[in-house]
Design goal:
Helix content is about 20%, strand content about 30%. A hairpin with a 2-residue loop joins strand 1 and strand 2. It is elongated.
Length: about 50
């Protein structure tokens, strides 16, 4: 028997807004504009990735 794939339901807030490179080795994914603003305040040289 084949296993049926589980239906994936999108949970509100589960999609990411953008990726943020905070230093040469570290890339984080942020979900909200507020968290993006907080990370940019902590790391002003951070670069947003598409």
């Amino acid at each position: 028997m084949k296993a049926k794939p589980k239906k994936i339901e999108e949970v509100k807030g589960s999609t990411y807004l953008t990726k943020l490179r905070i230093d040469p080795r570290t890339v984080i994914m942020v979900r909200t504009k507020e968290s993006l603003k907080n990370w940019k305040a902590k790391y002003p040289d951070a670069v947003e990735l598409v």
